[in-house]
Specification:
This protein is of the alpha+beta class and 89 residues long. It is built from two helices and two strands; from the N terminus they run ββαα.
Length: 89
């Protein structure tokens, strides 16, 4: 297990800076790999939002077509809709 400490560089006056600690099983040997892990963490929140939109707005779990082909089409449609909703907001 590797630990990446990420202190907040620009805080607000009078508010204590945030310090995040990221845990990863991936190798962290060079500064470039540290930057990569931090970037991945930033993208993570977009993915969480995307899943929330699909689950709550698309109700993917409630509508499960019987045929695999229909399920793939439905999930594709929901993914496109979720991406567009996120872009609008």
């Amino acid at each position: 297990m590797n630990v990446v400490a990420v202190p907040e560089m620009k805080g607000f006056p009078g508010i204590e800076a945030i310090r995040r600690v990221l845990l990863t099983h991936l190798p962290v040997r060079y500064l470039a790999s540290v930057a990569q892990k931090i970037a991945w963490y930033g993208i993570r929140w977009r993915i969480v939002t995307w899943h929330r939109v699909i689950k709550s707005g698309g109700k993917v779990e409630d509508r499960l077509p019987e045929k695999t082909e229909r399920l793939q089409r439905y999930r594709t449609l929901c993914s496109i809709s979720a991406a567009r909703l996120i872009r609008v907001t």
